[in-house]
Design goal:
Length: 175
């Protein structure tokens, strides 16, 4: 994914992550409501990997979250995916939906007819946000991801994920 820059929603700005964001993004990442789904931050977690783009999400001039988009660029199975988290202090204000809609618009405009997300099956808030942005559930992925934190006995089990997609209507294909 190349050629990206700043994405603008109605109330949020998504801009490339820079080194000055590390302290605040790590603080947000360690919040229990975020770490529950993302685990504790590991070295280098906010850097873009091959085929991905990372963003700091800003609202009212302050960093309130993190987002990442990635793509599978196989001509026969091309799609993009996204993921994000917000500071719990920003939950419930519509900022997540605004960020998702900005990323979806950009991904569709940059030749991706299909966009996927895969929240934990019990992450009701994320699922509701993605559904409000036009994603539909495709199916449950059993034992999809290793638990981020150990259970009461110290072991880590597996939890289910929900595959969701946002697909352009037929006839609106991108090239």
């Amino acid at each position: 994914m190349s050629g990206f820059g700043v994405l603008r929603g109605q109330r949020v700005v998504l801009r490339p992550v820079d080194p000055g964001d590390a302290e605040e993004l790590n603080r947000i990442h360690r919040e229990p409501e975020v770490a529950r789904w993302w685990g504790q931050p590991e070295d280098g977690w906010m850097h873009a990997e091959h085929g991905s783009v990372t963003y700091a999400i800003e609202a009212d001039g302050r960093v309130v979250g993190f987002a990442k988009t990635y793509e599978k660029d196989n001509p026969r199975r091309r799609f993009a995916g996204l993921d994000l988290f917000l500071d719990p202090s920003a939950h419930g204000a519509g900022l997540g939906l605004d960020a998702v809609e900005a990323m979806v618009g950009w991904l569709h405009a940059t030749r991706h007819h299909r966009i996927v997300v895969d929240p934990a099956a019990d992450n009701a808030a994320a699922i509701a946000c993605y559904a409000k942005a036009g994603f539909r559930a495709v199916g449950l992925m059993h034992a999809y991801e290793r638990d981020r934190a150990p259970g009461p006995d110290g072991s880590r089990g597996w939890h289910d994920g929900l595959l969701m997609e946002h697909v352009l209507p037929a006839g609106e294909d991108v090239h």
